[in-house]
């Protein structure tokens, strides 16, 4: 008797929505592919009367005009990102929600030369390459944050424009809202949080107390920042704000080697900041809650001998922490990468990567930003030299420009 064997090997790295063993993911992929194909087919030529096209698409799909505009704009954007477009054509990995997020984030570039789009394209491909089996696909918020980081690193003027957003205060029958630049928002947010802690009241009550003048604001609000000190031109990550290329001068500097196991149940502050810097957000798949607003979960309970140490502590928002406490999922950490394998009640599983500034992926990113800035400075230096040759017919080498070593790991 002979036995037939198949020789095809299953992929070892893929995102959960392209899991080859799951029939439901194939159905969902078909749905994304068909939606994509529909809009590609009806994508209007730029020469057509756009108002008439929009009216017709509105009648066919029942979607509102803003939504239709977003779909069209996202598809046109893909034409500027050929590698991402090729990836999309192969797997239909990204839904329109994510594609629209990418498009809108790239609006900040304005009308940019194609080489800038090429760099964004490559950086996005690197970011969207899975590293594990059944890995959680980055959320729209994760992807948008990454696009912002990429374009900030490519174009310093964008970082500057970002800080000059017009402030707006609105008060209507139900809400009071305040629109300010992101850095100010991070400071106000921190002020309200610290006051709530000090008074032992909810955040809303602390905000009211501050704004009505019932209490005096804390004189110094602490903003936590992360920066690779031994990488030249390394960007700074500000908790609750994002990345900046500005050179901030911190009042207190802590090294990650200062993190040592604690014998108490409570996570010490320095350790908490390290864990938040590694995790970025709540570690549950798809949750966007920033890590600094999360609780720290002992993976192995403290009472069962689980240490108070980053290798056993992970950020979870209140809701997902409750789910874990109720035994609705378990997770197993990878000791070096900080990846978490989640096992759910229904027998399914998924992997999430940490996404904070201290995570391995972010370290590579820091290295590439630094290389990018160095490359840009070298090219402007080469241009200046070419001009000098033109003017004087000779050149004097003043210093040797340092060459980046692409194989060197990011030193943190
Ligand atoms: Zn969560």
Low-pLDDT runs: 395-404, 408-412
Helix content: 40-55%
Report the average pLDDT across residues: 82
- How many E-type strands? 10
Distance between the termini: 59 Å
Question: What bound compounds does this protein have?
Answer: zinc ion
Number of domains: 3
The sequence of SSEs as H and E is HHHHHHHHEEHHEEEHEEHEEEH
In brief:
By secondary structure, the chain is mostly helical. It folds into three domains: 16-162, no CATH class; 168-211, no CATH class; 227-352, no CATH class. The protein has helices at 23-41, 50-61, 65-78, 82-91, 96-106, 114-127, 140-154, 156-162, 182-199, 203-211, 269-279, 318-325, 360-392; strands at 168-171, 176-179, 225-226, 236-238, 242-244, 295-298, 313-316, 329-333, 340-344, 349-352.
Describe, in plain words, how this protein is organized in 3D.
The structure is a single chain. The protein is mostly helical and 412 residues long. It has three domains: 16-162, no CATH class; 168-211, no CATH class; 227-352, no CATH class. Helix content is 44%, strand content 9%. The protein has helices at 23-41, 50-61, 65-78, 82-91, 96-106, 114-127, 140-154, 156-162, 182-199, 203-211, 269-279, 318-325, 360-392; strands at 168-171, 176-179, 225-226, 236-238, 242-244, 295-298, 313-316, 329-333, 340-344, 349-352. The strands form four sheets. It has a three-stranded antiparallel sheet with strand order 3-4-5. Helix 3 crosses helix 5 (96-106), helix 5 (96-106) runs parallel beside helix 7 (140-154) and helix 6 (114-127) packs across helix 7 (140-154). The longest helix has 33 residues, at 360-392. The chain is globular and about 65 Å long. It binds zinc ion (ZN). GO terms for molecular function: endonuclease activity.
